Amino acid sequence: MLSSKWSYRKIRKLVWSKFHKRACLFQMRVAKALFEERKDVVSVAATGMGKTLSFWIPLLMALEENQDKIIIVITPLNILGKQNVDLLKRVGISGVAIDASNSSDATFKEVEAGQHRVIVVNPEILMEVGGHFEKLWKKSHFTSKLLYIVFDEGHCISEWSEFRNQYKHVGSLRYLIPDMVPFYVTSATLPTATLADVSDILQLRSPRLIFRSNNRPTIAIAVHRIQHTMSSFEDLDFLIPRDIAETGNAPPKFLVFFDDRKEAENAAKHLQNLLPDHLRDKVKHFHSVMSDTYRDKQFKALGYGDLFGLCVTDSFGMGLDLPDIAIVVQWRAPKSIIAVWQRFGRAARGDDREGFAILLAEPSHFDEDREKARLAADKRRERAAKKRKSGKPATDPPAKRRTTSNKGSEHQLVPTSNEDQQEQEGRDQDEAETKMAVLDPAVDDLINAGARKLNCRRRVINLVFRNDERG
Question: Are strands 411-415 and 400-404 parallel, antiparallel or unpaired?
Fold first, then answer.
């Protein structure tokens, strides 16, 4: 292949001529491995560090050599596909984002005819049995044009395969396309175990590993205990300034992530109720049940500053590029450290921006509260054993609860009003629900970094993702 003539200087010049961006060494190493060496590639870099640009550089190199080539980008979120196609259109590269709305004979006739250099698609359409792609794989005039296949947000191949079943089967592409077509897997979050799983599913062949640190030093990380009943969402009140009705000043732009759609909706309603009537449409919710049109509209509204913030699920999360999100909140401890760092990575993506990432965790996940609960349980068992021996009922009076005295740190039994008792019962119910959840050990360490003498919560991130080795 004549590709040996591609020096870093020449690649930088080509990228600048198209995207008016200076390609970094990380991006150029990816390009040379894919284009010159025809190697499978796995790349890791922090959110907002230019992984998407690396998708296009080898294609630009092929087109510069007058090669008739196309690439396929597999994305977990349809909105990411539209974002990529819009970017390519501005630089004169034809692309198509295929989803349920346009997965038609007409669209695939265009694809087969080579009208688009970039095809962005979700795994469900790509791997549909009897679908359009199954037919395309059998047509050599199409498969011979394949330059490489990109797996965007590659951690999803492992993390989401339980509820996005087609991710389990994407590795079968190895047997459907020409053997020389390399796979390019990229993500900000590929810890060792996840990378091993992804490599196994995709049957990667001695991939070139091109890793950078995924640390985001411009994002300050905090963890706080949820203080109020979780169904009230009062712990989110800090997002809306108390004097907003008088000043009219917009709060810092924010995202609040939830693992439950209903909670996202209810939290948005709560925040709306903190706003004066004429501003209540400045906070919205955003999740997978909404139409693509609605989600695209709200994404753009947040970007333009027409919204103060969104209450979202992962349907917003990965890859979406807004430069000025000032605050990201994670409501409740999520199942994995990958989810935490992906969501926190939405903050401060623009140049010279700084942001805050806050995990609001259930009290039952804190070591201090666990120890209190353990001691209380031991005392209850001890009292119950004594009462059984004495023949007395093993129950406490219902109108009393355990609380902390204002005079000291000892726990005392004090009378409560019906209102206080109902609030405590609500907290107890919330706590009972979360005690059953099994935390990712890394999330557990993130929450309890101070108590476990890890000194800095960022150290947990750096250890999990081996940032000390990745530079």
Answer: antiparallel
pLDDT at 3: 44
Cβ count near 347 (within 10 Å):
29
Q: For residues 255 and 262, give the distance between their C-alpha atoms in angstroms, rounded to a whole number.
A: 16
Q: Which amino acid is at 101?
A: S
Q: Which domains does the chain have, with CATH numbers?
A: 2-211 (3.40.50.300), 219-361+440-470 (3.40.50.300), 365-435 (no CATH)
Instruction: Kindly tell me the burial class for residue 385, based on how many C-beta atoms sit within 10 Å of its own C-beta (0-12, 13-18, 19 or more).
Output: exposed
* Strand order through the sheet with 183-187: 95-98, 118-121, 70-74, 146-151, 183-187, 41-44, 208-211
Q: How many residues does the chain have?
A: 471
Residue range 165-215, pLDDT digits in tens? 999 999 999 999 999 999 999 999 999 999 999 999 999 999 999 999 999
330: nearest Cα among 312, 355, 348: 312
Where does 267-345 show beta strands of DSSP type E? 283-286, 309-312, 327-331
Q: Which residues pair with 413 in a beta bridge?
A: 402
Can you tell me whether residue 409 is helix, strand or coil? coil
Residue 398 has a CB neighbour count (10 Å cut-off) of 8
Question: What is the four-CA torsion angle of 408, 235, 456, 471, rounded to 10 degrees?
Answer: 180
CB 169 within 8 A of CB 138: no
Contact 33, 42 (CB under 8 A): no
Which segment of 304-308, 402-406, 454-458 scores lowest on mean pLDDT? 402-406
Beta carbons of 147 and 58 less than 8 angstroms apart: yes
| Per-residue confidence band for 415, with pLDDT thresholds at 50, 70 and 90 | very low
Split at pLDDT 50, 70, 90, the class of 109 is very high
- Asked whether the beta carbons of 159 and 194 are under 8 A apart, the reply is yes
